[in-house]
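Example record used in the benchmark description.
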Amino acid sequence: MRRTLTRGSAPLATLAGGALGATLGVGWALAGWQVLAVVSLAAVVPAARWVDPGSDDVD
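Model output (structure tokens):
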């Protein structure tokens, strides 16, 4: 499921980035990408603290 979502969203993100770059300029599109990367990292780091590295959910 995770791979389907990430690989399925890549073409949509490419189109959205191209449209944003064509509309606002490449600099703004790249700045938005960097902001999204930092926000994603800020969301993942606290979530990673809740994961028990010793547990394995695979049966």
